[in-house]
Design brief:
This protein has 38 helices and 27 strands. It is α+β, with helices and mostly antiparallel strands and 1006 residues long. The strands form eight sheets. Strands 1, 2, 3, 4, 5, 6, 7, 10, 11 and 12 form a ten-stranded mixed sheet that branches. Helix 17 runs parallel beside helix 28. It is elongated, with a radius of gyration of 36 Å.
Length: 1006
């Protein structure tokens, strides 16, 4: 005899709720086997439902509940109305059973005496061929796993009849066990059907699947998971943790409870690596909530204990193993599956041009390989130990001055990363940087070009042109490490930032690169901020809100790294000092704010000698060097009328922003070198402009020149002109026109360097008489003045920072009678050095001679010798140890360092590529801004396929790194070359659901 069935329908008010409820009620009335009674639970106002004729003709009673009532609580409210012995059919307002669903569910229940629950096949409302759920299992750690969700229904799972659990929507629960198998409200709406199945199995029953019984369900009903990603992640994780505490043996429950927070930390790291940052906060929220729900865990364990008759071993065969889970998540094709645009670094010649650039780099700076360190210009040694390098990069005591405490320049962190690559001798990394600068620039330019073109020749051209940029070569010749690093990092920032809206991996990489670029060139901040705001506005304007969220992450690491310095400069009333160039401040030749200087900047040169041409060419012939950049400029301007004009105009905007930055930079002086104002270096702005000009020119060459021969000629002429323009700079080192020198390994005398070996905290007072009659005073801690110890706190200061040693220095070289050794020792100063300024004049020489004579007469100061660095004196007594940080300063240092490390770590984890992120990146075009009618070269092994017209996916189309967009039939329709009829694939092979390649004709295989 068929069991009596009592249907319970849970509904919530909402815009589409009434229509969904009426559809469900109509489906229930249309059943071939009608339920004996229907109870409606309305979580909200029930007045409208009571007035509905359809509701009155279908339900036997209406229960009104609070709007916050969960699906499980609503089912409990309706249980008193269910007659004894009746089976319960669980439905929701959006759960519409097909006409024979209940008949087949009841039939399966009658044919399976051991079945406690019968589950239908849940399909999508708008597409009944899409399986929403058909059986649920879990892993050994309690993670729920859908067995057939998201698949196309072809009957492939219709033979399944046993599962550990199922989706709660549409479940039919046997009347004899309905009181024991109640949905658990503590699960917060997730995994309720799985929990019922586990409890049924422990009670000696089974969950039997009835695939022939179909129930349509929408994704936004009372029994569905929340639609928001963060909310869904929270309830899913909370349900998993609650089940873990409820299922675990009693002695293991405290251990599980103690592991919740460490697991949250570990899973937060895995979420970031898996490009799911939106799941981090829900992870911690779920862990904290699970830790506090003692009563809910106790009630759940009591329900299990009251009904349990079998051991936990009975559910083991139905769990999903790790190997099965990997096979289920893996598509079987690795990261190559669905590739649209291959990189072709080796087959496209990128590796060979980088190797050739390495040869040119070694030839241009041959003798550098024999140098232990490199000096000259803005180059200084690095610390001798990696620990000291990172100490200079942290908030705390600075390496210059006395008791100067405050934030480090972010550039110090870049220097620390660079020095850590060669721990045995960090200063040697600068030598390697200069040797590898050209190949690294070619490599960066080549990769940046992959976002503009897929033509191998144009990518090579872009890499070479980026390495031959006048501003880059000038920085190499003049010894500007920050400018060199900024130029090397900019193409990688471009490569990542233009696709940051597509995936979290690109956003994480771009955020770190943005922080590094601005650390090396703070003057680029206004231009890059403007470009970021424009991009963010475009993405928001096109309703790509997830892409906008990724873009919002981009400036966060930069803000955290610069935050302490920003606060310090604002508190001291010097906000413009934030734009100061980091590293050693020195008055080097550069284009000025006069007409000649601005003309040089407009032509793309940061100095008036035009990358060396004004020096090597006789007369005024060197000024014609500017014409060598004209072909590139003309090609860039032509991009505005090319087929891909949007990309061309965007890149021209980048170029204009860079030129504007350079023009503004030369008019701003916020740093001082021994009292002399030093303008901001315009070369970094020109580097930004160069990437815009070069990208726009590449767009023109790629799309506006249809004839291959014309494209080849234009590319060759432009590259040859740039090479000729670069010749004076590439030969400057061998013709003694470069400031680069061998070392020094220390800027202090060898005696002091030996005493301070290992970066011991020994301080040296350096007095340098100036040609204007002044005296420059500096205190250096350690074995040398180093690049990482430089700080804009001091170079931009308008008043003394820390302990003012100016008065002590003046008294020291004067005739004033005082206890000089005692005062020096109190400040922790062990040595005094009288240095000589370059190009010393009569006034400086006279002051230096008088100073030496005065200090020689001071008792307690021992003359240590005359060195090439100057005249040195040693303090007879012991100097005081450096003052330690106060408790408040230590707290500030810990807070700043912890916050910075957390944000940088998060960005690093986001940027780590995963299998899914690589697959998603390969599944879409690398080119950004491709026109629909533009051809794209698709690779076949090492060869290129005939050009096919492929539409670039819209910006932000790939909303998740795990998504695998593929070429659509519409995108592949306009093939450039007709395919012979014998080679056309059969339609059924092209549309098959498996990924097995269709058989090819014998002619094509040959």
């Amino acid at each position: 005899m068929p069991a009596r069935v009592h249907a319970i329908i849970v509904a919530r008010p909402g815009p589409s709720a009434r229509a969904q409820l009426l559809r469900t009620l109509d489906a229930v009335r249309s059943q071939t086997l009608a339920p004996d009674a229907v109870t409606l639970v309305l979580c909200g106002d029930a007045a409208t439902a009571r007035e509905s004729e359809a509701v009155a003709n279908t339900v036997e009673g209406i229960i009104e509940a609070r709007p916050s009532t969960s699906f499980a609580e609503a089912i409990d409210l309706a249980r008193p109305r269910v007659p004894e012995g009746s089976a319960i059919w669980l439905l929701a307002q959006d759960t519409a059973p097909h006409p024979r669903a209940l008949e087949r569910l009841v039939g399966t229940l009658e044919r399976s005496p051991s079945a406690a629950i019968v589950a239908p096949k849940v399909v999508a409302t708008d597409n009944d061929r899409e399986i929403v759920s058909l059986g649920v299992s879990m892993t050994a750690l309690g993670r729920s796993v859908e067995l057939a969700a998201g698949e196309l229904d072809q009957g492939q799972h219709d033979r399944m009849d046993d599962a550990l659990g199922a989706d709660i929507r549409g479940l039919l629960i046997r009347g004899e066990v309905r009181d024991a198998l109640r949905p658990d409200p503590a699960l917060a709406g997730a995994d309720e059907g799985l929990d019922l199945g586990v409890r049924a199995r422990l009670g000696g029953g089974r969950v039997v699947l009835a695939p022939s019984a179909r129930v349509s369900a929408a994704p936004d009903g009372p029994a569905a998971l929340p639609s928001g990603r963060s909310r869904r992640a929270y309830v899913t994780r909370l349900a998993q943790l609650h089940r873990r505490l409820a299922y675990a043996p009693l002695p293991a429950v405290p251990l599980h409870w103690l592991s919740l927070l460490p697991l949250a930390l570990w899973r937060s790291i895995t979420h970031l690596i898996g490009k799911r940052p939106e799941a981090v906060l829900p992870e911690w929220g779920a862990a904290l909530a699970a830790m506090l729900r003692f009563g809910a865990v106790a009630r759940s364990r009591a329900r299990i204990r009251a009904f349990r008759t079998s051991s936990w071993a009975s559910i083991a065969p139905l769990r999903v193993t790790s190997a099965q889970l990997r096979r289920r998540l893996d598509d079987g094709h690795g990261s190559e599956h669905g590739a649209v645009s291959e990189l072709r670094f080796f087959s496209g010649g990128g590796a060979w041009v980088v190797l050739a650039a390495l040869v040119v780099g070694i030839a241009s700076f041959t003798t550098l390989l024999a140098w232990p360190a490199i000096g000259g210009g803005g180059l200084l040694p690095l610390r001798q130990t990696v620990a000291a390098l990172w100490g200079d990069a942290a908030w705390g005591t600075r390496g210059l001055g006395v008791d100067v405490v405050g934030p480090a320049d972010p550039f110090a962190a870049v220097v620390a990363v660079l020095g850590s690559l060669w721990p045995a001798g960090p200063s040697f990394t600068l030598v390697l940087l200069w040797i590898l600068a050209l190949p690294l620039a070619v490599l960066g330019g080549w990769f940046a070009a992959t976002r503009v073109t897929d033509r191998a020749g144009l990518r090579i051209f872009a890499g070479i042109a980026w390495a031959l940029a006048p501003t880059f070569l000038t920085a190499l010749v003049d010894g500007r490490p920050a400018a060199v690093l900024a130029h090397l990092l900019l193409p990688w920032l471009f490569h990542s930032a233009v696709v940051a809206h597509r995936s979290w991996g690109a956003a994480g990489s771009a955020s770190l690169l943005l922080a590094a670029v601005l650390a090396c060139a703070p003057s680029l901040a206004p231009a890059l901020a403007l470009l970021w705001l424009v991009t963010l506005g475009i993405v928001i304007g096109t309703a790509q809100f997830r892409g906008a969220g990724r873009l919002l992450w981009l400036p966060l690491p930069t803000a955290v790294l610069f935050g302490p310095l920003i606060s310090w400069q604002l508190l001291h009333g010097t906000p413009l000092a934030l734009l100061a160039d980091p590293g050693l401040t020195w008055a080097a030749p550069q284009a000025g704010a006069d007409a000649v200087g601005r003309l040089a900047i407009a032509l793309g040169f940061p100095t008036t000698d035009l990358a060396g041409w004004a020096t090597v060419a006789p007369g005024g012939l060197g000024t014609w060097a500017a014409l060598l950049c004209a072909p590139l400029a003309l090609l860039a301007l032509a991009s505005a009328v090319s087929p891909r004009w949007r990309a061309g105009i965007t890149l021209l905007v980048v170029a204009v922003a860079g030129v504007a930055t350079a023009f503004l930079a030369v008019g701003v002086s916020v740093s001082f070198a021994q009292g002399t104002p030093v303008p901001i270096w315009p070369g970094t702005g020109l580097s930004l402009a160069w990437i815009g000009v070069l990208g726009a020119a590449t767009v023109t060459l790629d799309t506006a020149l249809p004839l291959p021969r014309l494209r080849t000629v234009a590319t060759t002429v432009t590259a040859a002109a740039l090479l000729v323009c670069a010749l004076p700079a590439l030969t400057a080192f061998h013709t003694d026109r470069s400031v680069l020198t061998n070392g020094p390994e220390s800027t202090l005398p060898a005696y002091v360097a030996a005493q301070a070996a290992g970066d011991r905290a020994i301080s040296t007072l350096i007095l340098t008489p100036q040609n204007d009659g002044g005296l420059a005073v500096e205190v250096v801690r350690g074995a040398s003045e180093t690049l990482g110890a430089q700080t804009t706190m001091l170079s931009t200061a308008v008043e003394p920072q820390g302990t003012d040693t100016g008065t002590l220095a003046v008294d020291l070289i004067s005739a004033r009678d005082f206890d000089a050794p005692a005062e020096l020792a109190a400040e922790g100063i062990s040595y005094v050095l009288i240095a000589q300024v370059a190009g010393e004049g009569d006034r400086a020489r006279a002051l230096r001679t008088a100073s030496i004579a005065a200090i020689d007469q001071r008792p307690g100061l021992v003359h240590a010798g005359t060195t090439e660095r100057g005249v040195l004196w040693r303090l007879e007594g012991e100097a005081a140890a450096p003052a330690s940080l106060t408790a408040a300063q230590e707290g500030t240092a810990r807070l700043v360092i912890t916050l910075q490390l957390l944000v940088v770590l998060a960005a690093l984890l986001l940027s780590i590529p995963t299998r899914a992120s690589r697959r998603a990146a390969r599944a879409q075009s690398r080119i950004v801004g491709r026109a629909p009618e533009e051809p794209m070269v698709l690779p076949r092994h090492a060869e290129d396929l005939p050009a096919a017209v492929v539409e670039d996916p819209p910006v932000g189309a790939v909303e998740d790194p795990q998504d695998e967009p593929a070429l659509t039939d519409e995108a592949l329709a306009p093939i450039a070359e007709p395919v012979p009829e014998a080679e056309v694939e059969p339609a059924d092979a092209a549309e098959s659901d498996d990924d097995t390649p269709a058989p090819q004709p014998e002619e094509e295989r040959r």
